[in-house]
Every structure is written in C-alpha cells, then in structure tokens.
Amino acid sequence: MDMLQVGIFFFITAVIGFLTYLSCRNAPSGDRGSDHDYFLANGGLSWYFVAGSITLTNLSTDQLVGMNGNQMLLLAWWELAAVVGLLILAFVFIPIYYRNNCTTTTELLQRKYDNKHIRAVISVLFLLGNLFIFLPAILYGGSLFLKSTTGADFSSVFGERLFVGSPVEVDSTIFVMAITFAIVGALYAILGGLRAVAVSDTYSGVLILSLAVLVVILALNAINWDFSDVPAERLNMFLGNELEDGSETPIPWHTLLTGMIFIQIFYWSTNQTITQRAMASPSVEEARKGILAAAGIRLLIIPVIAVVPGVVAYKLYGDVGDAAYGMIVGDILPPILSGAFAAAIAAAVLTTFNSILNASAALYVCDFHESYIDEARDVPKLSMYVSIAMTVLAIVLVPIFASQESIINTVQQLYGLLSMPILSAFIVGLAFRNVSAWAAIIGVVTGVLVYAVFSFKLYGLIGISPEEGIGATLASVHYIHYMFVTLVVSIGTALLSNLIVFGRKAELSIGSSEPAPAA
Q: In whole angstroms, what is the distance from residue 141 CA to residue 136 CA?
C-alpha cells in the first residue's frame, strides 16, 4: 500500500463528501424535526438520486466480494432476477405506498389490517435482519476487500489476530477497518438524514460503476479473453443440485421457478432500506423513473461486474473464495486507479451501511417509539441514539461473519428466516380483506419456525434424523426452495387461523385500498 494509493483514496473520499454537502446545503428541508423530512428527504429526491441510491445501497461488498467470491457465472441470476423485483416495486407497490402516504413500508400493514401491533412485529423482524445479518456482513466484506486490494497490515500495532483462542477470533486489520467504516458510516446517517445518504450514494455510484466496468475489461485482457482452462461448471448458468466436487450448487437453476422471484419481491418492494428511497420522491411518476433507471443499470451492468472478475480470478489464482475480487483488482489496476477503486468500494460500504442505519432508525422511531412510548419531539436526536446502538452491536458481530465460507450465501440463507414470513404479511394484507392482524402474525411466526427447522436441518427437534431416510431427502433440498415453501405455509396458516381461530372468512380483494375491519 503506497502513498499514492493512500493519497488518492483520501482525496476522492473527501471530494464525495464535499459534493454531497454542496448538494444538500441549499435543498428545501421543510420541518427538520419531522419524520417525513428526516426519513423521506421532505419528498424531494429527483429520479436520478432515487436510481443512484437504490443501486448503490444494494451494490456493496456482499455483491462484489461475495458474488465474485463464488467464482461462477451462475451467481448472475441474483442480479437478473432483481430486475423483476424492481419492476414490481415500480408498478405495483410504489403507487400503493404513495396512495397510503406511508413513511415506512410497515405503515402500510397497519393501514391494511387496522392494527399497529402487526406493524411492530414486522419492524422487529426487519431490525433483527439489519442488525444481525446485513450490517456486520457489510463491514466485514468491505474490510476484507480493502485488505486484499491494498495489502494493508496493522498487525505490527495490534497483533496478527484479535480475540485469539476465542470462538470469534478475527484478523486485526479487518477488524480495525470495520470499526472505521462503522464510525464514518454512522456519522453520515446521523448528521445528514436520507437526503445526504441518497446524494452520496449517487456520486459514489457513478465512480464505482465506471471503475467496476474497467476492472471487467482489464481482467478479461489479463487472460486474453480466453476461458479455456476454467472448468465448464463455472461457466454454466443452468446447474443442478451439486458441483463436480460434490458440494452444493449456490443457485440450482430450478430455484428460479420457486423462491428466487419471491426473494426479489420481498427485497425490492417491502424492504424499508430500498423502498425508502423511492418513497422520498415528490410523486409516483418521479419515483417510477428512478426505479426503472435502477432496473436498467441492474440488467445491463451489475451481473457482469458481479461475476466475471471472479471467474477470471479462478483462472489466475485458483479457488480463493471471497478474496478473489480484491486480489484481481489489486493486481490489474495501476496504483492511481487501485487507490480510486478502494475509495469507491469504501464509499459503497459506507453508503450501504448508513442507508441501513437510516432505515432502521425510521422503523424504530415511526413504528415503536411513536406508537408505544411518545411522540418523537427531536427525530434526529432519537435517530442518533438508535444508530449508535446498532453500530456498536454490528461491530461486535463482525468476527462471526469472518468465519463464514461465503458472505453472499450466508447472508441469503440467514435472511430467509425473515424475508418470506414478512412477505406473507404483505401479500395477505394486500390480496385479502377481513383478515385479523393476529392471524397474519401467527402465519409469520409459523413461517420463521418452519424455515429454521428445514433450512438449517434441525430435524432432530421433530424426531427426524438428517442423515437417513426422509431426513436425508429433506436435507438435499436447496434453501431457496424452502423459502418458497415457507411463504406458502405462512400465507396458508394466516388464512386458516383467520377462519378457525378468529371466525373470519377472508375475502379476495387484490388492489383494494380499503383496510380490514379492526382486529
């Protein structure tokens, strides 16, 4: 890591911060202390900021590092399927959010079920996912990339590893970088609100997408555009359950027919971290333009930058896992560009981290504090306390992700505990009338338990051995299939308990804006 890299890194980071300040200082702010202004930028995000923020909030190290770390073209399906999720957000969910004047996605549930408790339950699940899955994974992935790219080493100061001999032993350089990312990202979220987050996302996005495309071109040039020595399965987009070495395929092609699309609907259309950007435009039309622009970027650029460098790295270095992207960027880019790319990745980590913090603060303030404690008289101050607490806990959890084989696969599998149960509450609330909120909550809880038992092979809890007979068959089913099963079970349980326990017959009412009778 030479001084040129360091200088360029800090220069670009400072420029992004300065441009963000210039863009935000004269923007109309409305009531700075209100939920709408702080969490939805007073409805003032133009379509290009919506597109930039949605793109970079999602595009962080869990994509670039995690997907390239699988070193297979197959992982491109995550990004291609995401286009469908964005289209559903643009044409189905965004008009509904605007029609119901929502600040959080969970507010829609309160309106549909006429019950604040279901809003709180779903918010808890979102917050648990943000805290225990996304925030620490982002910090770890970004730190691993920077270490792999720059060769930075703080072992002379802190020792090679921290917490030596404990179950969460971790590389000291990665942990120090993670702490730095967390502090800077929290400051963005605390001081600027959504407007600063979205603007910095957009400026960073232009830089990172340009450099990521350049990395693809230079990587292909490094192997003379010749993939002849790469195993065929790493170039195959339609693989079955197992790879040649007997390990499980990350995304068997048939998962595209079951859980994959519903994962995308959940992530892009109900996840507060993403939809908050689209809900901050002055109109549905402006929001839709931004979402469609983000979908275009997702279709044309993201799949290529998320998988091709990893496959090239396999040819150059072999199976190096999540270190692949950092290694190839460090090798093929000259110092002046590797410093710039390190700054771009750092910006991506920061913007994704601060976006999740801002969304989490919105969920707590709007769904808990104001519903169960008191009106938030100082929204920025209350949000600051929430952001600080989540930042500290995320740092503590970083060592756990350092022990995982693949960031992206771990994140997706863990989030299945929450995603499909949450989506079931939205589907039941939007598609049916006369459903008790408590019936929907029963469906959500049942879904979490079902997914936990089958995806994490906890069959022993129900008396089934995972090594033989039906247990072995169940263990061979991919977790994305179980996500689809979880969704069906959650919806079915909600409707059945609504009829049997609460004596209500659900009425199909797709697209209706009328809330259900009080629960």
A: 9
DSSP designation for 518: P
Please give the full DSSP string across 311-331, using - where no structure is assigned: HHHHHHH-S-GGGHHHHHHHH
The mean pLDDT value of the chain amounts to 85
DSSP class per residue in 268-281: HHT-HHHHHHHTTS
Instruction: Of 4-13, 201-210, 462-471, 505-514, give the range with the top mean pLDDT.
Output: 201-210
Nearest by Cα to 100 from 486, 495, 493, 426 = 426
Do residues 287 and 94 touch, judged by C-beta distance below 8 A? yes
Mean pLDDT of the 151-155 span: 76
Say what the pLDDT of residue 346 is: 80
What CA–CA distance (Å, rounded) separates 273 from 363? Answer: 10
Distance CA 294, CA 302 (A): 10
DSSP state of 229: T
What is the domain partition of the chain in residue ranges?
3-20+38-508
Q: Is 248 helix (H, G, I), strand (E, B) or coil?
A: strand
E strand or H helix at 432? strand 432-433
CB-CB contact of 70 with 406 (8 Å):
yes
HEC profile of 334-385: CHHHHHHHHHHHHHHHHHHHHHHHHHHHHHHHHHHHHHHHCCCCCHHHHHHH
DSSP per position, 446-493: HHHHHHHHHHTT-GGGGT--TTSHHHHHHHTS-HHHHHHHHHHHHHHH
The pLDDT value given to residue 6 = 72
What gap in Å lies between CA 50 and CA 159, rounded to an integer? 43
Question: For 259-278, what is the mean pLDDT?
Answer: 92
Helix (H) or strand (E) holding 507: strand 507-508
User: What is the C-alpha separation between 276 and 260, in angstroms, rounded?
Assistant: 23
The radius of gyration of the chain from alpha carbons, rounded to an integer in Å, stands at 23
> Exposure of 33 by Cβ count < 10 A (0-12 exposed, 13-18 middle, 19+ buried)?
middle
Residue type, 244: E
Strands 507-508 and 161-162: unpaired
Question: What is 3-20+38-508's CATH topology?
Answer: Sodium/glucose cotransporter (1.20.1730)
Tell me which residue has tokens 């009328």. 514
Query: Does residue 194 surpass a pLDDT of 80?
Result: no
**Long-range contacts for 215-220 (Cβ within 8 Å, ≥24 apart)?**
215/305, 215/309, 215/328, 215/329, 215/332, 215/333, 215/341, 216/304, 216/305, 216/308, 216/309, 218/332, 218/333, 219/308, 219/309, 219/312, 219/313, 219/328, 219/332, 220/308, 220/312
pTM equals 0.86
Residue 495: name the closest of 433, 448, 451 by CA: 433
